[in-house]
Amino acid sequence: MEKVKNAAYQNPALTVSERVEDLLSRMTVEEKVAQIGCVLAAMGRFRGDMTTMLKHGIGQIGTLGGCFSADMNIEFVKTVQDYLLENTRLGIPAMFHLETLNGAQIAGGTTFPIPIGMGASWDDKLLGEVTAAIREETSTSGFRLALAPVLDVSRDPRWGRQGETYGENATLTSAMGAAYVKGLQGDSLTEGVAATTKHFLGYGMSEGGINIAASHINARELREVYAKPFEAAIRLSGLEGVMNAYQEIDGVPVAAAKEILTNLLRNELGFEGLTVSDYGSIEKSVICFGLTEDMTEAGILSINAGLDTETPERLCYGDDFTEAVKSGRVDASIVDRAVRRVLTLKFKLGLFETPYANAERHKSALQCDAHIKTSYEMACKSFVLLKNENNILPLSDKYKKIAVIGKNAESLRNLFGGYSYIATYEMMHSFMTRSMEGGGLEGVVLTEEQLEQQKAIAARMPSVEQSIKLNYPGIQSVYQAVCEGFPDAEVRYARGCGVYSDDRAGFDEAVKLAGESEVVILVLGGKNGSGNGCTMGENVDSSDIGLPGVQEELAKAVAATGKSIIIVHMDGRPLSSVWARENAAAILEVWHPSQCGAKAIADTLRGINNPGGKLPVTVARNAGHIPIYADQRRGSGALYKGISNSGITQGYYNEPGFPLYAFGFGLSYSDFEIGSMELSANEIKPDEKINVSCTVKNIGAVAGDEVVQLYFTDRVASIVRPNKELAGFARVCLKSGESKKITFTFHADQTAFVGADMKWRVEAGDIDLMIGNSSDNLALKAVLNISETKVLRSSERTFFSEVEYEQL
C-alpha cells in the first residue's frame, strides 16, 4: 500500500466540494463501497479482526452505547482513527455514530427526560438548551453523528415507541424537532454533531400499533402530517441526516422506496444531506418482506431508491455488492452519489482535521453543573397535572404520615427511558450474562473464542443497579426523594407489586401501610427499554394501554382504605384509566424523567415546582378508542360533534366517545385568565400574514406557567380538513398577578393543504382562529378571511407561528 500524500483533498483551505471531488476521483470501488458501509463494535469490541474489517476504510462505526467509561470511549475512538489514518491508503476517518434521543448514550453522559416528556413541556427554547448540552458531551467524545431525533407523529399509544416521540401533533413535533436539530448541530458543524432524524416516514402509525407493521397512509396525509416535522428540520435547521423507517407503505418497504426516499424527501422536501439506513432495515427486503432472496439485490434496491448508507454492518452493501458494482449490475454513478454525500458530511464535520475526542473538554462537560441543572429544569417542565381534587397538591405540612407505594417508587432503572445509556447497558448486561450460560442475542452466532471473551467481560460487569450508581452519583429513587423532601413527616414504603406481574403477595403490606397513613403516593407505570421485563420500547408493543400487570388492582385495594391517593404515573404513554380519573385525588404524569426526575417529582409534590406541562397526545379511554387525536378530519372519529342522517350523534353506544384528557390539557397550582384577542387585520392574501394577540394573567396565588395555544379551522375547503389544527403555542411564566401580551404571527400559508391535483394550495375563504389553554378549551375566537386562492410550492409554507412576549 502506498499512502496518498499532499493531495488536494487534504488541503483544508479548499472548499468542501473541491475536496470531495478530488478524493472521490482517487478512490477504488472497494474504497467507495466501504464508505457507504458501517461496522458495529458493541461496547467497543469488534466481532472480528479490525484490520480486516477496515482495510479499505469505513464510513461509520456503531457501538451500542459505547464503552464502559469516558476514558475507554476516548481511547477506542483514537485506536480506530489511528488505524484508518495510518494504515489505509487514503486515510479517511470514520464517523462514529451514537444515539442521543434523551442524552448522549455514553457512560457518564447527562440524561434528560424521554422525548414525550420533553414534548409535554411545550418549550422548544428549553429543548434547544438540552440539545446544546448533548452536543457538547457528544462532539467532544469523538462521536459526531447522532441517530436522533425521532420525528414520528405518534397517534397510537399501543405502539411501544410512542415515548420516543414528541406526540401526536405535526406542528408541535415540527417546532420541537427543529429546535432539537438546531441545538445539536450548532452554529458551525465543525463544532457540532450531525443530526439524523427518524423514521422517515409514517412509522408511528402502523397496523395494530405493532412495530414495523405496515402503515396505511395516503399520499396526501403523508405530506401534510407525517413529512411536516422532517421538512421543518430541513428548511429551518439545515438537517444533515435522515434515517428511513422499517415498515412498508403501499406494498413497498421504505428502505426500497424511491418514491419516498428520493421523490418526496429530496425533490419535494428539499433534503440535500445523507440518508442512513436504520439498523438491519435493508436486509428486511429478504428476511421480512420477501422482495428478493439475495442480500446484494436488496442492497441494489435500496441504493437505487436513494438510501446512501447501510448500518450497522455490511450485509447488503458488502463484498458481493462491490463485485456487483464492478460487473455493472449496480450503476457506478449511483454509488458515487452516495459516497459523495458521505464524504461531504465528513468534511463538513471537520473530521479530516479533528478526528479524535477532546478528552479534557469531554470529561469536564459530562454531567457538569449546567447540564444537570438543565436536566432538572426539563424534568420539572415535562410534568403534567391531570387532576387535583380539592387542591390536595402541593401537599401541606399537615400530613405527618405519608405512604409511598409502587415498584417505580424505589426503582432507579425505571427513571430512565429506553434509549438511555443505562437501558442499553442493561440490554448488553443481560446478553453477556446469558452468554455465560450459553445463550445470547437471538440470531448472533459467536465463535468459541468470542464466547470466552464475552464470559470474561460479563464476569467483570457491574450489575445494572451498580452501573446506575457509578454513572450517576447521588441519584435518588422517588421514595428517597420524598423522604428528603418531607423531613417532618414519617414516610414509609411498600412495594405492593411489580411493574408487570400477577403477583399480589405484596398487596396486604401496601394496604396495611395505607391504612396507617394520612395520604398515599402511588408511583405506578411501566418500564421502558428492550426485554428485561420492559412494558414499552422498541418491539415492546401492547394491546392494552392501561396500567401493566396488577397495578390497577393494587390502586383499588389501596383506595378502599378511604385514604386520599395521589398517583404519580411514570411511563412512555399517558395513563389511560377511567378508574384513576374518577377515584384518585390527584394524578401527576411524569413520563420517564431521568436522573434528576426523583428530586423533580418530590419538589413538585411539595410545591417548589409548579407543574405547567400540557399533554402532547390525546388520552384514550381504552384501546378501543384508537385512533383518537385532536386534529381528526371532519366527519371522522368519536370527537366529531356532527349528526348522522338518522339524527343520532356519532359515537360509541356503550361508553362516552370523548377522551379521558384532550391534547394540550394540563392543570397548574395556579389559575390563569386568557383574554383580549385581537387581529391586526381581518383579511389577507395567501402570501401575507397577520398578528394574532391575546393577554394572559396569573390570577392565582403562586407563580406558574401557562401554555397559550392558537388553533385554526378552515370552514369550507375542496378537500376535507381537520376539525382544528394547531398553529402555534407559547409557554409563559408568570408571577402571581402578573400579565403578559402574547403575539402570534399567523401566516395564510399555514392553512395550505394538498389539493385534488396533489399540489399545495391556500384556498380563499373564512378561517376560524381560536385561542385557549387546551384543544378542547378555546374560548377566544375570531374570523380571518383569505381573499384569494393560490397554488404554492412546498417550500413556501410556514410550519408554525412565531411568538413574541410583551410585559404588561
Helix-and-strand structural type: alpha/beta
Largest sheet: 7 strands, parallel
Give the C-alpha Rg: 27 Å
Uncertain stretches: 640-648
**How confident overall, as mean pLDDT?**
95
Query: Strand sequence of the main sheet, in spatial order?
Result: 1-2-3-4-5-6-9
Tell me the β content.
15-25%
Question: How many helices in DSSP terms?
Answer: 25
**Number of strand segments:** 27
Instruction: Tell me, briefly, the overall form.
Output: globular
**In which range does the helix fraction lie?**
25-40%
User: Alpha-carbon distance between the termini?
Assistant: 72 Å
Provide structural commentary.
With 808 residues, this protein is of the alpha/beta class. The protein has 25 helices and 27 strands. Helix 6 (124-139) packs antiparallel against helix 16 (369-382), helix 18 (421-436) crosses helix 19 and helix 21 (478-485) crosses helix 25. The longest helix has 18 residues, at 70-87. The model is unreliable at 640-648 (pLDDT under 50).
Q: Gist?
A:
This protein is of the alpha/beta class and 808 residues long. Helices cover 31% and strands 18% of the residues.
Please give the structural blueprint.
Blueprint: H1 16-26, H2 29-35, E1 38-40, H3 50-53, E2 60-62, H4 70-87, E3 95-98, H5 115-121, H6 124-139, E4 143-146, H7 170-185, E5 194-200, H8 219-226, H9 228-237, E6 241-244, E7 248-249, E8 252-253, H10 258-268, E9 274-276, H11 284-287, H12 295-305, H13 319-327, H14 332-349, H15 359-365, H16 369-382, E10 384-388, E11 401-405, H17 407-410, H18 421-436, H19 448-460, H20 464-471, H21 478-485, E12 490-494, H22 507-515, E13 519-525, H23 551-559, E14 564-570, H24 578-583, E15 586-589, H25 597-605, E16 672-679, E17 683-684, E18 689-698, E19 704-714, E20 725-734, E21 739-747, E22 753-754, E23 760-762, E24 765-772, E25 780-786, E26 790-792, E27 802-807
Parallel strand pairs: 1-2, 2-3, 3-4, 4-5, 5-6, 6-9, 11-12, 11-13, 13-14, 14-15, 17-25
Antiparallel strand pairs: 7-8, 10-15, 16-18, 18-21, 19-20, 19-24, 21-27, 22-23, 23-26, 24-25
